[in-house]
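Dear Dr. L.,

I hope this message finds you well. Following up on our conversation about the binding site, I have prepared a predicted three-dimensional model of the protein together with zinc ion. For your records, I am including the exact sequence and ligand specification that went into the calculation, followed by the structure tokens. Please feel free to forward this to your student if that is useful.
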Amino acid sequence: MTANLQKDILILAIESSCDDTAASLIRNGIILSNKVATQGIHEQYGGVVPELAGRAHQQNIVPVVDIALNNAGVNLQQLSAIAFTKGPGLMGSLMVGCSFAKSLAQSLQIPLIGINHMEAHVLAHFIENPKPSFPFLCLTVSGGHTQIVKMTDYFTSEIIGKTIDDAAGEAFDKAAKLLQLPYPGGPLIDKFAKLGNPESYSFPQPNIPNLDYSFSGLKTSILYFLQKEMKENPQFINEELNNLCASIQHTFIKHLMKKLIAASIQTGIKEISLAGGVSANTGLRFALENEGKKRGWNTYIPAFEYCTDNAAMIAMAAYLKFLKGDFETLNTAPFAR
Ligand code: KG4
Ligand code: ZN
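The resulting structure of the complex is given below.
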């Protein structure tokens, strides 16, 4: 691939893979703006409704891009390229960002850059200092994925462990639903866990071979436990919410960390990072830092705003692709998985 020698590289990046409509401007690798519009409409349904997500992206995309351009103090004519999330994600949601980016790139006669959402979560580590050095391991934990990725270069990676059923974010959200909390419940479990005792209740750790994860059995054991307790005391969840959140979060984190530790021992890599929405979890961030101190790891976690879905991570990945001259044609299409 040819190196791009253009001096001032200004890219508009769009993220629309799930239920956040986001836009970001990046100039020469420095983020100028990062705007996210979260779709509150899904809360009442207890999860993301794909049809409604696509519709909300359609309504939000123009204002969100306008705000991102204004906040960065730039206009469309100054842009060097347009980037968008190509997948994985919800097809209807991805289509909005893809079509918008294609039209804009075509009308401005500038290159189009397609970005893999999961790769972008990992490349969020290159937005700010300190940055991990290659090779590094990244535990990527989101609502749709849970993977241990071995990164040997920006766009060269190997998935060495993954969930065989639910993703970690999905497990947090499902557990929250069992605790009668609204969607998305992950951040709420995090919030209440701070007020509870993680040793209050114990749930069996999943016994899964290799570096893989499993969360569905845990969810079932939480369900049966709550059903039993609620039969004896219908106020059990209300009365014990903080302790339940702390204990459930503790169990999830223990499982996540166990495989990450094994991955570090197996590969000999001590550059260890977290990415994806669940890396916003206070308990998981603390566990990584704590384990890192014990094991001599260098640990890396992106700032909160770059952990959950955002367009700055798409912009960072796009900047790196621009340098390689890695562009899409205008007949490109998104992929769901
Ligand atoms: O990466 P992300 O924003 O979207 C996807 O690509 O899926 O991740 C969203 C997931 C949701 O399941 C949400 O509940 C979870 O990340 N999440 C959290 C926290 N913040 C977001 N889970 C636990 N603790 C948090 N603080
Ligand atoms: Zn994500």
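In brief: The chain has two domains: 10-123+308-324, 130-301.

With kind regards,
A. P.
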